[in-house]
């Protein structure tokens, strides 16, 4: 397995301190691949991250369209394989209204499954060997991890100025 | 919600407050759990008797072949509606109170739909061959399931609803399971670590998570409205008097949300006490749930009235006959229980004092649950006993077997729900933090 880089981890108590720091290091070349941790999905973080629309939407669209085609396709194919004469009309008319339900339900089903898959794929999950840098990130603290940085470096200074509660070294592992 | 919630806690208290209580619930939890087991056993014994002796023990006989079992099916599907309504529709409407109650509502949905799904299987009797009748599998003549049948639609609708509700529920659980993982040690840490997929809470993960959650909510919103519409078509697509009416889909959806919200309230009040969550599920949240129940109660009231009016206005004597007999015939008791429990008693909630009185509201919410069960019973039985041919009219009386299976369904549902409460965060911690005051530094104050 590839070795994970070491670096510095800054821990923040306050949301606004975190977003200040995020905006400062966002485009710095010495902070590439930094990671931000948060216990929940504050919109302020999303704005500071400025990542653009998530590609999960393409998964949803693909799933939903596949579902529509599958649903209508299934119903029409069954109708073709065993024609059902309704009201004395010719077989092979393929009247759609009754099949809207099947098409609709499979649109939702496939769309939903692909959305969850998209979220997992884009979030690099499942990843059970992930290292947990600090257990408080799922509780009430925010954090920024800058790989390949040192406590005496420029990055640490910026993180400290923004109000970091604590900055510590993370060993390469 | 118009009023601001008065929080005594900050986001730092959330994990401590909620997870600490998971391990040591109030003793009443174990009493409730034992009760659920007893109910479940009653259901299991009844079912064993039914399989041994045949379907005759359920009281189903000409002309009523959809008895109490289908009543229970519709009832439990209805209960399952509030969860996804609260998690999806209220999410899109940005109704903040949902964040305090959505997890328990979603869990309720999942278990209610699983309970509902048992009933068509019990109802067909030889359930071990049911897989062969329902899904589109060809028989030896290559004859397929008729996808024009509302029963086939129902299979697609209920299965989709169950799967999407499960996804929604589990997706919401992932960050919370990571919170549990970061608190516990040893084997439990390993198990919760697997269950949360190794969630780390990075900003990028949250970014994709939020997008996915939004899309899932957008997909689930029409789904909530469609599922009970499709269940109502099981009835409305037939020509049976009392069933064949276009008001059925909105009427059923409103009824489902009414029963679901009442059930959310009925479950939240004891769970909140058992797991000492009064500081997180605030009275304001409970009141918002009651307001939604009151709203849907008035819609249901209106639907009952319109149904009667249309039966009279249509000039169809069979239709009108069924409705008159519902109100003053041999099944009038069920009808008036339904009207009083669903329409009249909830009117007390127009008073803010009564809405905030937990004992009164709990009592009325239970009455609404009873009323909604009777509504389904009333719709199914009173229409089936009398169709267009007086020669084929009959009577229906529930048997002990029907009652046993109904009790069993409550036991089955509570059994799973209480197990869930014990091992999973029953309040969505990550979402609760969002509606609490933001952790901002001094310079912003």
Percent helix of chain B: over 70%
Strand content of chain A: 5-15%
Please state roughly what percent of the residues of chain B sit in beta strands, choosing from under 5%, 5-15%, 15-25%, 25-35%, 35-45% or over 45%: under 5%
Structural class of chain B: mainly alpha
Give the averaged pLDDT of chain B, no decimals: 90
The biggest chain-chain interface is:
A-B, 70 and 66 residues
Question: What is the N-to-C order of secondary-structure elements of chain B (H for helix, E for strand)?
Answer: HHHHHHHHHHHHHHHHH
In the predicted model, the low-confidence regions of chain A spanning at least 5 consecutive residues are none
Helical amount of chain A: 40-55%
Global outline of chain B: globular
- Continuous helix count of chain B: 17
Largest sheet properties of chain A: 4 strands, antiparallel
Distance separating the two termini of chain A: 10 Å
Radius of gyration of chain B: 23 Å
Low-confidence stretches of chain B: none
Question: Mind describing the biggest β-sheet of chain B?
Answer: none
User: So what's the overall shape of chain A?
Assistant: rod-shaped
Report the strand count of chain A: 4
């Amino acid at each position: 397995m590839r070795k994970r880089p070491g670096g510095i981890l800054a821990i923040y108590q306050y949301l606004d301190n975190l977003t200040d720091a995020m905006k400062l290091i966002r485009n710095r070349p010495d902070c590439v691949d930094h990671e931000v941790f948060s216990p929940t999905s504050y919109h302020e973080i999303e704005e500071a991250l400025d990542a653009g629309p998530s590609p999960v939407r393409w998964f949803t669209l693909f799933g939903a369209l596949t579902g529509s085609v599958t649903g209508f396709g299934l119903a029409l194919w069954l109708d073709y394989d065993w024609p059902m004469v309704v009201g004395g009309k010719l077989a092979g008319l393929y009247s759609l209204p009754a099949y809207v339900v099947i098409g609709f339900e499979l649109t939702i089903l496939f769309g939903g499954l692909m959305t969850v898959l998209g979220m997992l794929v884009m979030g690099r999950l499942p990843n059970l060997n992930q290292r947990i840098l600090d257990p408080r990130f799922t509780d009430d603290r925010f954090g920024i991890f800058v790989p390949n940085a040192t406590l005496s470096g420029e990055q640490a200074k910026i993180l400290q100025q923004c109000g970091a509660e604590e900055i510590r070294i993370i060993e390469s592992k | 919600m118009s009023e601001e919630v008065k929080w005594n806690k900050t986001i730092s208290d959330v994990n401590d407050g909620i997870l600490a209580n998971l391990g040591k619930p109030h003793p009443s939890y174990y009493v409730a759990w034992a009760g659920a087991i007893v109910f479940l056993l009653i259901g299991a014994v009844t079912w064993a008797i039914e399989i041994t002796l045949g379907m005759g023990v359920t009281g189903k006989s000409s002309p009523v072949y959809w008895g109490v079992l289908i009543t229970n099916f519709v009832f439990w599907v209805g209960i399952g509606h509030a969860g996804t309504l609260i998690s999806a529709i209220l999410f899109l409407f940005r109704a903040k109170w949902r964040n305090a109650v959505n997890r328990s509502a979603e869990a309720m949905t999942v278990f209610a739909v699983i309970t509902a799904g048992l009933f068509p299987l019990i109802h067909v009797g030889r359930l071990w061959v049911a897989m062969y009748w329902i899904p589109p599998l060809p028989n030896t003549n290559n004859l397929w399931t008729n996808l024009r049948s509302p029963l086939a639609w129902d299979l697609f609708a209920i299965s989709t609803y169950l799967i999407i509700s499960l996804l929604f529920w589990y997706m919401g659980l992932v960050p919370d399971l990571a919170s549990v993982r970061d608190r516990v040690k040893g084997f439990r840490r390993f198990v919760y670590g697997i269950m949360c997929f190794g969630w780390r809470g990075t900003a990028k993960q949250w970014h994709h998570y939020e997008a996915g959650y939004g899309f899932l909510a957008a997909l689930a919103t029409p789904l909530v409205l469609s599922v009970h519409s499709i269940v109502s078509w099981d009835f409305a697509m037939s020509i049976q008097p009392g069933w064949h009416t276009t008001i059925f889909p909105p009427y059923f959806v409103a009824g489902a949300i009414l029963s679901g919200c009442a059930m959310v309230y009925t479950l939240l009040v004891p769970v909140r006490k058992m797991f000492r969550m009064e500081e997180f599920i605030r009275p304001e949240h409970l009141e918002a749930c009651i307001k939604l129940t009151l709203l849907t109660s008035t819609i249901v009231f209106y639907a009952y009235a319109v149904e009667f009016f249309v039966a009279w206005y249509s000039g169809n004597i069979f239709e009108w006959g069924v409705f008159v007999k519902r109100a003053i015939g041999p099944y009038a008791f069920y009808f008036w229980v339904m009207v009083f429990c669903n329409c009249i008693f909830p009117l007390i909630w127009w008073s803010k004092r009564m809405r905030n009185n937990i004992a009164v509201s709990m009592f009325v919410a239970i009455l609404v649950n009873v009323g909604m069960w009777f509504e389904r019973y009333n719709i199914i039985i009173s229409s089936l006993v009398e169709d267009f041919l007086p020669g084929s009219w009959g009577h229906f009386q529930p048997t002990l077997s029907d009652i046993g299976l109904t009790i069993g369904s409550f036991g089955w549902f509570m059994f799973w729900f209480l197990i869930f409460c014990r091992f999973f965060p029953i309040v969505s911690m990550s979402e609760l933090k969002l509606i609490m005051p933001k952790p901002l530094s001094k310079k912003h104050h």
